[in-house]
Amino acid sequence: MASFGISAGQAVAAVWDKSSPVEALKDLVDKLQVLTGDEGQVLVENMSQLFRSAQEKSSFDVILSGVVPGSVTLHSAEVLAEMARILRPGGCLFLKEPVETAVDKDSKVKTASKLCSALTLSGLVEVKELQQRESLSPEEKQSIHESLLSVQITGKKTNFEVGSSSQLKLSITKKSPLSLTGYCDPIPCLSTPSPPHFSVAFVSLVVSVPL
Description:
InterPro entries: Anamorsin, Anamorsin_N_metazoan, SAM-dependent_MTases_sf. The chain is an alpha/beta fold. It has helices at residues 22-36, 77-86, 112-121, 138-144, and strands at 11-16, 41-46, 60-65, 87-99, 124-129, 134-135, 149-157.
């Protein structure tokens, strides 16, 4: 099992759903408890109960979802946003999800690029695929009734909380009196050339860095 960068003393949440085999889930939890040690915390949460559990904001260093072997977990935008909320600043989310290899408007399954976009929209940064895509097992394909691939993706929470503030030092200089030199009557000045117009474009960048 990958260590997911988990170290002793950290708080880790393992999110599972109805597709997760019970024995595989127990095995994952046992390994996580070894990694976090006596000073750490491992919470096991069913995805359907994630909102009802009302976890406090910034509670976990690491969240794992869909990584239980045999799982075919699909993450909604609401679930991703909730996971981002309960991550601590600088914390990491690791998820595994089946994806479509081509765009299908009628499918509930995302493509890998749409899944990465959903993670970015939830507020995470440094979103990227972790490893080569894998084919689903026969049991996984039967569970979701589609021919898909499986991807592992990670995202990191920013090192600050959304809505946090800090005091800014402002330097205010006294303006000089307004000069009317060169003032002209509005009517004759209507023929004065208008100032140039500029076009502004906005771009979104996703930065990916190696672990």
